[in-house]
Amino acid sequence: MVTIQDVAKAAGVSPMTVSHVINDHPHVKNETRERVLRAIAELDYRVNVAARNLRTGRTGTIGLAVAEIDRPYYGQLAAAIITAAERRGLKVAIEQTGASREGELDALALSRNRLYDGLILSTVGLGPADTELLKVDHPVVILGERIFDGPVDHVAMPNVEGARAATAHLIERGCRRVVLIDGGVRGDEVDVSSLRYTGYREALDAAGLAFDPALVAPIDAFTMESGAAAARRVADSGLDFDGIFCVTDTVAIGALRGLADRGVAVPGRVKVIGFDNIAEGAYSVPSLSTIDPDHTLMADTAVDLLARRLTEKGKKNRQVAQEFISRFSVVARESTG
Amino acid sequence: MVTIQDVAKAAGVSPMTVSHVINDHPHVKNETRERVLRAIAELDYRVNVAARNLRTGRTGTIGLAVAEIDRPYYGQLAAAIITAAERRGLKVAIEQTGASREGELDALALSRNRLYDGLILSTVGLGPADTELLKVDHPVVILGERIFDGPVDHVAMPNVEGARAATAHLIERGCRRVVLIDGGVRGDEVDVSSLRYTGYREALDAAGLAFDPALVAPIDAFTMESGAAAARRVADSGLDFDGIFCVTDTVAIGALRGLADRGVAVPGRVKVIGFDNIAEGAYSVPSLSTIDPDHTLMADTAVDLLARRLTEKGKKNRQVAQEFISRFSVVARESTG
DNA sequence: GGCGTGATTTGTATCGATAAAAAACTGTAT
DNA sequence: ATACAGTTTTTTATCGATACAAATCACGCC
Question: A60: Cβ–Cβ under 8 A, 6 or more apart, which residues?
């Protein structure tokens, strides 16, 4: 295994000089630099990342903890984050939390093990009660709602506003009885379900439509399967409805399928809108109207916040926690045509 | 930062003893072990992974290089691999190659940097000409075709057989003019496109149907977009056809969309089948018939092969390269109903 | 020639863990 | 008491890079 010492010997300089060349330090004579670079090329030298990590205390890798990487939303998010991290010379290791509190805590523990320099954590399971657990000594950026009092950076979607716009879009297109397919649990008012529910209510209010609890179809997971099941349930119930707002696109694609199972025409008899703007929505039949929260911007911002923390020297001049809420736009496609 | 020395001092033993406890070495008296464990818990000690890596030369992380993690197929593959790796105490870092030869070579280089103990490489861009480049000193498992002469483990799909079965399925259901939407380049006979093309031809032959080159619609990327475009092109061409076999499910979902754009009824007028069995296919409208190559088995096998190499001592008793071809089954859904 | 200043280069001492080997126990048999 | 085999613990020497500080060099100027 070629080490920095071997290169130094070959180039006739000290190991430190080689290190300087590798790390682009100033004050290396051009001629020396070239000699070193030539030696590096000749010997096919590669830095031993572990040794560097040990000395510098940094790993050059950040963790990304998501519920399940095989859900389109997280896949697309991960792709955007990997791309953004790459630009800053960071690697991304992916943890799957399974959308559970335990999984999210595990991810936190791993970065505490110094496997990662920092962590981008997409929260689903953690709640305000876990604030204490977030007080770790490495940077964490939360992707999701502002569920913690603690001073943690986070990047959120415009959930209430987006949901309001989605519901309003259905109403504009003539819907009067809009079903909401959404995670059921209320009371705790900071999770995605609740926030989007709030937006839904606001839109109804703004349009002067009465809220009918019967129109809320609760699901326990944001999957195509539960979306389909919920849609079938609603269709079978004999309930009068002409629109559906689904808490996520994945759920909405399931719902489209569930409606197809029951022969309900979309958008003829019922209009459907989702939230997230995953790529698949543009190709479903009918194609899916949705709220686009600008993933790329969110991913960039998350990585940016984390990267900024990584370079923060000491605890002295630490910035206060940042909160960033993405913008959104309504994407109208066939399902609300 | 708590080190192993601190723990040793607290427990009144030497650092080595602590190391033995941490690594479950035998020959540690029970009472000592407990004392050490108590000290570890009290001080909230965590191993410094970088230091361990430096000393042992292992990182505990494997790389997974895929084209793009936001494509359902790769997302689902990654999820399966992460799960399989977890069972063996391995972390997975994901590289995106962008389906290019350069990207794949980059991924190889990274593991050569000793960032990873080994690499699972899903090849698209590398060809037989790159065999030499694969002769690296860390384990590599290729997920994809047997495109290399070199002694590299690989896990492949039953491409020819699966494609044959897919095409045969269409023929059984009454199709006589089956379009193939597939990566265009021929000649090089080891890539996915060519192999599935071969299967397609074999099925036609077996059924006594003539091969019509006009029925082959080439695409340059395995995306929904190109699938949709190809389907629209075929529909617009006035060509007589009653079935489509798409090289992947992602392409097929695009094709379903393209056919919908042109008002072509599926399965009424044209039947469609894909390959991969991605989750989305079960929820499309119509739901997508496909070939299921048993991803889980493939992922397990890939990780297993890699893990086995990781524990191989020295170069002496190295096993010969293994080749594993997954099994498959035909999943009949609405699109060929 | 001597001196100062800034640009280059180099020595030294770690970072924290573990491999390998040696040392210190333990208990048993002689 | 002594030797011996096996168990438990410790000593010593790295793994390969870089932080820090010190040394050396180059060049202009008095």
Answer: A49, A53, A89, A90, A91, A117
